[in-house]
Amino acid sequence: MAQFDLAIRGGTIVTASDEFRADIGIRDGRIVSIADRIEGAAREIDATDLLALPGGIDSHVHISQPSGPDVVMADDFASATRAAAAGGNTTILPFALQIKGSSLRACVEAYKKLADGECYIDTSFHLIISDPTAVVLGQELPALVKDGYTSFKVFMTYDDLVLSDKQLLEVFEVARREQALVMVHCEGYDAIRHLTEKLEREGHIAPYFHGTSRPQIVEREATHRAISHAEIVGVPIMIVHVSGREAMEQVRWAQQRGLPVHAETCPQYITLTADDMKGLNMDMSGAKYVCSPPPRDKASQDAIWDGIIGGVFHTFSSDHCPFRYDDPKGKLTPNSRTSFCWVLNGIPGVETRLPIFFSEGVSKGRISLQKFVELTSTNHARIYGLYPRKGSIGVDFDADIVLWDPKLKKTIRQSDLHHGSDYTPWEGFEVTGWPVMTIARGQVVADNGKIVGTKGAGEVISRGRSSLI
Ligand code: DUC
Ligand code: ZN
Ligand code: ZN
């Protein structure tokens, strides 16, 4: 009998700290040997001239999330995990959204049911707390944290999701007590409402004004408020999807004061600008880029790079939140033409996150390979309680590996993607560096853009405590 199920031969292994040439021996879905030369494998994969990176972990994706009446998210768990795998990911962390008035546990169980047997790669849920009742805070959340749901997101905006400052503080208290990590969506509800009403009164209703209705100051104020509340309670927080200089500076200020404040940014904030939401000839195509916080400007992109290079950001996620564009159940709902505030918020990106970041970061010489691995895999595993099972290449880790061709040039095209959306915001975007094979727990899932894995091979997994706790 062969000693290994699979050997990956001749690649350059990159971790968050190292880079070396070695073979990788895999048995029963785990890495069992790393050596100069591995013999005796049932299957060999030649990785000469390729990088062997820890599979991407995308800790911020939305799948099958209820987003309003007569609205359908473009991805279910099968299509989202397929797309993620084709884009070099081996684990994703979507959200289980609590519908106001519902039991949190019941919502989690419903999401698990949707995911069970459907995933091509491993999946693990964060929670979204929209209704922090006494039962949720006192009973459901503590029990769910114990069951491995060790992170939850709260919102400072949106009618159906916004928490008051008092509620934020209460959720933070539970997180501190139960040793969970809170992710915070920082945009101020009342300021957005005020600006939206003003814009609508003035007749500014096109998708472009989505950005005008939530300028950087709105994000900056909320970021500062979240940081202050976390300091009052004494709890670590993760500020998600930071879009520009102003919020980034708040995070950096907090970090310089020694506060445990962490931050995430996303591809849209290094590649898109508010102008993308303008559309052509006043048509609705700007809706394709509507997401929150909105893309800013070139100076903001530079500031985000400063934050990435300077260590302000810990994770680079997609915030994949996919809707179809040309669809009345997607971006073009009947209401969307009456005001930007009805345009569904979110863009697809789980499949393109890694190539965009590699190309803009590593290929353009802004960051090292190690930093790429740290921000796209290792830190996600550490921060969300998956380490040391996932997030690196080493003996005993899950055999979650992406083989990467650092020289391959590609143009991103919707026609090549695997997600459920009918467009990509990065149509025509040119990248250098591409994931040519994705291996999840020792099984090849994606091979040169072709899905060869099995639906159901990915599991819904629970997580331990965050390294930040
Ligand atoms: N926040 C997210 O995290 N994703 C999509 C929309 C939003 O507001
Ligand atoms: Zn958000
Ligand atoms: Zn999101």
Automatic annotation (TrEMBL):
GO terms for molecular function: dihydropyrimidinase activity; metal ion binding. PANTHER family: COLLAPSIN RESPONSE MEDIATOR PROTEIN, HYDRANTOINASE/DIHYDROPYRIMIDINASE FAMILY MEMBER. Residues 52-445 form the Amidohydrolase-related domain. This is Dihydropyrimidinase. Pfam families: Amidohydro_1 (PF01979). NCBIfam families: D-hydantoinase, PRK13404.1. GO terms for cellular component: cytosol. Belongs to the metallo-dependent hydrolases superfamily. Hydantoinase/dihydropyrimidinase family.
